[in-house]
Amino acid sequence: MRSWYHGPSVNFSLREFNSDFLDVIQLDDKIIPREYCCIKDEQQVNRGLVGQFYNVSSAPVVVLDSRTILIPQFSFEGTRPPVVLKDAWIFAGKGHVDKGSGKQSLIVAKDTPQHHCPLTKDYSGNTDLKILLPRQQTVYDINYISVFCYEYAVDFGHVYFDLSPQDVPVPPYIPPIQNEPSTVIPIIPC
């Protein structure tokens, strides 16, 4: 075991206890987990999501922790798609952007597991969306984030990326602390 201190042992006296301070673990070869900035489009490095339809775009995407992602300056013309395509979700998965490769993500402060609705309003680039990946996913399990019409399998816009815990360690997701026992919340229609 290596130590940054090579002098004599330091002795601490705590009332009735004596303890020798023998060694300190050196962490200078470890990367401390922290937020990761930025996931961006390879061709347009000042953008995160790049849209194919309905003006989907964002600034470069920030990974806050293993399940929480910030999509800054989100833009999407959610009122413009035909009625049959008003089924746009923030979608995350691995592989080609497709129904079978991804899962719908919650938008923090908008969605809950009991009230999860599609994006049906306009976002003009003035809103930062914070999304929460499903329990079965972390940022290391996915390689794309998309605005996706689930019913008709239409990718409105996306960004691809590849993160590994060795190269980009981010903090673990810590769920919110509940002071009261969980109660059954009724499902609210969108």
Automatic annotation (TrEMBL):
PROSITE patterns given in the database record: DM13
Highest taxon of the lineage: Eukaryota
InterPro entries membership: DM13_domain, Spindle_Org/Thrombomodulin
Domain DM13: 43-162
UniProtKB keywords: Repeat
PANTHER family with a match to the protein in the record: SKELETOR-RELATED, THROMBOMODULIN
Protein name: DM13 domain-containing protein
Organism: Setaria digitata
Species classification: Eukaryota, Metazoa, Ecdysozoa, Nematoda, Chromadorea
